[in-house]
UniProtKB/TrEMBL annotation:
A Pfam family matched in the record: WYL
Domain WCX: 221-295
Domain WYL residue range list: 120-188
This protein's name: WYL domain-containing protein
Native species: Caecibacteroides pullorum
InterPro entries for the chain: CBASS_pafABC_assoc_protein, WCX_dom, WYL_dom
């Protein structure tokens, strides 16, 4: 499929999802101005073809309500917003469409760089599509040498600007997580596997913040109190989906969440610097205190030197 055609489908979805109802004339007028249609109106036949293709590719149904002036809308729009992959794809292509239509904006938008792990993305995606075992050469942080072994690729996940492969380690016979930027080589083998029906990535990372899924750490209630700028920051960008506000006053906002307090979670709390306080459980509070004491010891050492 030509990239520009795909971009047109994304443009149509993005336009309609931004309007509760929008008529075909309004869609055609927007089409003339967006740059994708060479300044010409959108033909009715093209619109209908795009609408059908959008349903085929994205499983998104564009419907028409005759009672509201024949306005078009997206059925089950809430499900679309709740699907992180489709939302990310549409947002990304919508931005790319705008950049292609207006080159003046090209130098006015910046993107985060992801380390070189994306070099092997296509190879791993191919293996996942074929359900083929991959042979990877991997050297983790702190390892003096690389190791080569076979993995059944189950899932790819992005976290904190890094790509990760989650898969079954044939060698250790357990599900492991591998950072793609620590992979030195990937080879697709002739060995195939069957993705277990019982494997659910959301269940695997249940309660987790980040990429560490440590089953030895229980999921439990964590309460934090946010001060200053962190109050609004955490309210608009929650640490975890379960986070919700349980109390508020003029100085602070108290949030509750049900999480697995792994190392990644503790690091996320530390990112809020001195603007949050852990209320419970006590052991999480103690861990944050231990981190703070270690940090303080580094600066004390520097001052003494």
């Amino acid at each position: 499929m030509a990239a520009n055609k795909f971009g047109r489908y994304v443009w149509l979805v993005d336009l309609i999802r931004c309007h509760p109802y929008i008529t075909f004339k309004e869609i055609s007028d927007k089409w003339e101005d967006c740059g994708l249609g060479d300044g010409k109106p959108l033909p009715w036949k093209t619109f209908m073809n795009h609408k059908d293709t959008v349903q085929t590719i994205f499983d998104i149904i564009i419907s028409c309500d005759a009672k509201r002036g024949y306005g078009y809308y997206i059925e089950d729009a809430d499900l679309l917003e709740g699907n992180s992959f489709r939302s990310w794809l549409i947002d990304s292509y919508a931005t790319l469409n705008q950049l292609q239509a207006d080159r003046k904006l090209e130098k006015r938008i910046s993107f985060e760089k992801i380390p070189s792990g994306n070099k092997y993305l296509q190879t791993i995606l191919q293996a996942m599509h074929q359900n083929s075992v991959v042979e990877i050469t991997h050297q983790g942080f702190g390892r003096s040498h690389a190791s080569t072994f076979q993995v059944e690729p189950y899932h790819l996940k992005v976290y904190n600007r890094r790509w990760y492969l989650i898969g079954w380690s044939v060698y250790s016979e357990e599900i492991r997580t591998y950072a793609l930027d620590r992979i030195l080589n990937v080879k697709v083998t002739d060995i195939t596997f069957k993705l277990p029906e019982s494997f659910d990535i959301n269940e695997y990372f249940e309660g987790c913040v980040g990429i560490i899924a440590d089953g030895d750490i229980d999921i439990e209630r964590v309460v934090i109190k946010a001060y200053g700028w962190a109050r609004k920051y955490l309210a608009t960008l929650p640490i975890h989906d379960s986070q919700h506000e349980i109390a508020s006053d003029d100085e602070s906002t108290t949030f509750e969440m049900t999480v697995r307090p792994t190392y990644d979670f503790l690091q996320t709390l530390l990112q809020q610097t001195d603007h949050i306080e852990v209320i419970e459980p006590q052991w999480v509070k103690d861990e944050i205190c231990r981190f703070a004491e270690n940090i303080l010891s580094y600066y004390k050492k520097t001052n003494n030197d």
